């Protein structure tokens, strides 16, 4: 008989009853039919994992083929992809700032956390994206890369818990294209996908380490990759994985291995200080702190019924989401088409023999089930639908292990009826949730799932597990074609605006711009041709045209600055922002706000201010261009590129001003004590010295940085360092050193154990 060694190749040995699908006499025919593929079993698991990653990358092309901008919507187009392009250009130029004052509310890269500036894989991707002119294609390449990496992790994790190769391939192929992972994270929230991917790898590595099969440095590295994505759900995932694996070790009474796991986990946790201390330090001036509440407004909260319809391709959950909608337009809770229909065919009695080894899986799955059904806001964790993919990862492991026992062949008619009922019920739930507009799609979905389920059962009987696997993978691709052809569902509430994506086209729309640019625009009334030609750009898209822009995307916000301009996180403003620019900035600063921001180009959306064409620019300004979409005003004498001092109190004269993103040196002369105002936001972490002696840094108007200086001729130095940076770097250095020492000790203990085992074997042979 064939007995499986958990996580390793199959070997021939005497196996106890219930050890695998070949224990059933009806499986012997299947086993004989699968002999020709025996050679594939000699391939190492890592090679199969790479092949699975390539397969998922190919499947991941389907959404891009069906819709050019599938991987380029929402935050992906407004925040991530253009910022990746910008950061990649800076890296290629030899600059790696944790702070960029030219990004204004979105320029505190260290505090934003989600920028991923501490993640080496992300940094390589930034450089890759910076070479692309088409940001949508660049985003597609990065997201497919992570879908492939996720597939590899799922395959290895399923194998680690004892699944056979084909079942592991089946779930590894399906999970990356499941609902939330594909339609939300790969499409628009890439930091979540990155975190989920590295957590899955960490789970595999941590569990393998807990079994004594892998040194602790590998899970430490995967944990670091998960944390440095900056996504808090990644940190939560690491903690839950450590608890789950720790429970398994406690049940096995493996105290020494539990201690190793705890040390490794502590090393991983220390890295979080580097990533999240700057975020916490920025809390007093940001909007993020206001979100740290416990509440439930039902936003993005799935129900048990939504999870129960996880195998229906066209099921759209009744979840409160964007713009007050109560129905989803994408299958956010979809798992895989085959999981529920194949449940009647699984050998559930075999699950008993795996209860001990699956304890951690049940702990993790149970936690995320409760979290998915929890309140909409739980401290910094919002929108429970975000954790559904972690629940599905646990489900995938259990399903792969059960499927490894083969499909049952007794009571065939009852199983057929049960499977048909599951498929039919899924179709009904899909129709009931969205009865209008998708009727034909629901029918096609039921037909695909029903036919593929029947074909999978027949293929298993005729060709064994490889036949079933081929059908399931083909069915996954077919379902994805259907989903991307008919979804998102529902008519748009207004004209569909395709995001700007060609850097060269956006740059062409900025030919009249000079110096720092401030755009006054609202999302309403924007058309595709306006954004794709670079006339009106929101978020970080405006940053890739080679000009500093005040209206960058921010995930944490700067409350005083954005309130002054009534600006949202994407840079959209209210009509009243125009008047606020021309009045004194306040707090003793007589200069108008547009001057203290050092703005040299003002872009006004015509639909925001229909009267702008009739307005005469103030003295020192002129109209540079007028189109149906916008009016562009520029200063007749733009601000010089060097320096960021925008105002000085009476009697203070700037003699020279040199600046870098994180440091500015100003030589000045003052008849009396005064102050200098900088076109920098006063983020926590700024310090100032005058001739080496500390100077007071205070908040200026609109949240700008202001420094009090003494009379005389002096040199003022303003420096930014992210709060907690030194502590974070020290923690990382200590974690790396401790993890390296732990790894050396692990190898030494392993060598000693082998020597003792070898000596014991020699004594037995001599006796």
Based on CA atoms alone, the radius of gyration comes out at 30 Å
Q: pLDDT below 50 for ≥5 consecutive residues: which ranges?
A: 1-36
Structural domain tally: 3
Average pLDDT number: 90
Question: How would you explain this protein's 3D organization?
Answer:
- By secondary structure, the protein is of the alpha+beta class.
- The protein folds into three domains: 383 residues, no CATH class; 128 residues, no CATH class; 76 residues, Immunoglobulin-like.
- Helices cover 47% and strands 13% of the residues.
- The strands form six sheets. A five-stranded antiparallel β-sheet has the order 13-14-20-16-17, with no helix packed on it. The protein has a four-stranded mixed β-sheet with strand order 6-9-11-10.
- A hairpin with a 2-residue loop joins β7 and β8.
- α10 runs parallel beside α12.
- The protein is globular.
- The two termini are 32 Å apart.
- 51% of the residues are buried.
Summarize the structure.
The chain contains 24 helices and 20 strands.
What characteristics describe this protein?
767 residues; Immunoglobulin-like; 3 domains
Map the helices and strands.
Blueprint: E1 2-4, E2 10-12, H1 28-33, H2 45-59, H3 61-66, H4 75-92, H5 109-112, H6 120-130, H7 135-160, H8 165-174, H9 179-188, H10 190-210, H11 217-227, H12 232-252, H13 255-281, E3 293-295, H14 304-308, H15 359-372, E4 377-379, E5 381-382, H16 388-403, H17 412-433, H18 439-486, H19 503-508, E6 516-520, H20 528-532, H21 559-564, H22 577-580, E7 584-586, E8 589-592, H23 593-596, E9 599-605, E10 621-626, E11 630-635, E12 645-648, E13 652-660, E14 663-670, E15 674-681, E16 686-690, E17 693-695, E18 697-699, E19 704-709, E20 712-720, H24 725-766
Parallel strand pairs: 6-9
Antiparallel strand pairs: 1-2, 3-4, 4-5, 7-8, 9-11, 10-11, 12-15, 13-14, 14-20, 15-19, 16-17, 16-20, 18-19
Helix pairs in contact: 2-7, 2-8, 4-6, 4-7, 7-8, 7-10, 8-16, 8-18, 9-10, 10-11, 10-12, 11-13, 12-13, 12-15, 13-24, 15-16, 17-18
């Amino acid at each position: 008989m064939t007995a499986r060694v958990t996580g390793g190749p199959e070997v021939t040995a005497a196996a106890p009853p219930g050890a695998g699908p070949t224990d059933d006499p009806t499986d012997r025919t299947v086993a004989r039919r699968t002999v020709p593929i025996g050679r594939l079993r000699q391939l190492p698991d890592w090679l199969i994992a790479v092949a699975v990653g390539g397969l998922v990358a190919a499947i991941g092309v389907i959404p891009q083929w069906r819709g050019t901008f599938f991987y380029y919507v929402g935050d992906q187009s407004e925040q991530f992809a253009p910022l990746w392009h910008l950061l990649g250009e800076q890296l290629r130029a030899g600059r790696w700032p944790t702070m960029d004052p030219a990004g204004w509310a979105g320029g505190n890269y260290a505090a934003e956390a989600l920028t991923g500036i501490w993640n080496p894989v992300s940094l390589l991707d930034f450089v890759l994206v910076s070479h692309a002119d088409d940001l949508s294609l660049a985003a597609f390449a990065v997201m497919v890369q992570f879908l492939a990496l996720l597939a590899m992790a799922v395959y290895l994790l399923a194998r680690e818990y004892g699944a056979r190769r084909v079942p592991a391939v089946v779930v590894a192929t399906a999970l990356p294209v499941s609902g939330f992972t594909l339609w939300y994270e790969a499409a628009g929230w890439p930091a979540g996908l990155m975190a989920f991917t590295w957590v899955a790898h960490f789970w595999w590595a941590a569990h393998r380490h807990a079994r004594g099969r892998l040194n602790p440095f590998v899970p430490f590295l995967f944990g670091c990759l998960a944390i440095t994505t900056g996504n808090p759900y990644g940190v939560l995932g690491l903690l839950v994985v450590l608890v789950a694996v720790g429970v398994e070790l406690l049940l096995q009474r493996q105290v020494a291995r539990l201690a190793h796991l705890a040390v490794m986990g502590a090393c991983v946790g220390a890295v979080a200080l580097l990533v999240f201390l700057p975020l916490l330090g920025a809390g007093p001036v940001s909007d993020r702190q206001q979100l740290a509440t416990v509440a439930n407004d039902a936003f993005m909260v799935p129900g048990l019924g939504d999870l129960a319809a996880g195998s229906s391709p066209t099921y759209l959950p009744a979840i409160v989401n964007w713009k007050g909608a109560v129905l989803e337009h994408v299958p956010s809770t979809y798992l895989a088409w085959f999981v529920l229909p194949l449940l009647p065919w699984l050998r559930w009695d075999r699950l008993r023999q795996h209860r001990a080894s699956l304890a951690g899986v049940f702990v993790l799955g149970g936690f995320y089930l409760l979290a998915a059904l929890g309140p909409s806001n739980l401290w910094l964790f919002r929108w429970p639908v975000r954790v559904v993919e972690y629940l599905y990862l646990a489900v995938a492991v259990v399903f792969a292990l059960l499927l490894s026992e083969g499909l049952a062949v007794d009571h065939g008619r009852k199983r057929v009826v049960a499977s048909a009922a599951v498929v039919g019920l899924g179709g009904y739930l899909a129709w009931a949730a969205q009865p209008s507009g998708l009727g034909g799609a629901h029918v096609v979905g039921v037909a695909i799932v029903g036919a593929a389920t029947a074909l999978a059962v027949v293929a298993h009987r005729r060709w064994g597990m490889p036949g079933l696997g081929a059908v399931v993978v083909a069915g996954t691709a077919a379902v994805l074609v259907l989903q991307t052809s008919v979804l998102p569902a529902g008519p748009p509430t207004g004209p569909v605006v395709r995001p700007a994506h060609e850097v060269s086209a956006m740059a062409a729309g900025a030919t009249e711009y000079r110096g720092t640019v401030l755009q006054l625009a609202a999302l309403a009334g924007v058309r595709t041709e306006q954004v794709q030609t670079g006339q009106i750009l929101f978020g970080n898209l405006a940053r890739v045209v080679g000009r500093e822009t005040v209206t960058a995307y921010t995930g944490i916000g700067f409350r005083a600055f954005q309130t002054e301009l009534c600006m949202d996180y994407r840079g959209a403003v209210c009509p009243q922002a125009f008047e606020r620019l021309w009045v004194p900035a306040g707090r003793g600063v007589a200069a108008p706000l547009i001057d203290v921001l050092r703005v040299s180009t003002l872009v006004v959306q015509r639909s925001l201010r229909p009267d702008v064409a009739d307005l005469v620019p103030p003295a020192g300004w002129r109209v540079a261009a007028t189109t149906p979409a916008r009016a562009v005003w520029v200063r007749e004498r733009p601000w010089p590129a060097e320096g960021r001092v925008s105002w000085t109190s009476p009697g203070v004269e700037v003699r020279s001003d040199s600046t870098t993103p994180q440091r500015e040196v100003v030589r000045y002369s003052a008849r009396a004590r005064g102050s200098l105002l900088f076109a920098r936001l006063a983020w926590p972490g700024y310090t100032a010295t005058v001739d080496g002696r500390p100077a007071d840094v205070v908040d200026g108007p609109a949240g700008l940085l202001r420094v009090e200086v003494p009379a005389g001729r002096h040199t003022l130095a303003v420096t930014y360092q992210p709060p907690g940076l030194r502590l974070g770097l020290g923690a990382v250095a200590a974690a790396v050193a401790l993890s390296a020492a732990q790894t050396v000790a692990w190898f030494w203990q392993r060598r000693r154990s082998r020597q003792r085992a070898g000596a014991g074997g020699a004594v037995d042979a001599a006796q």
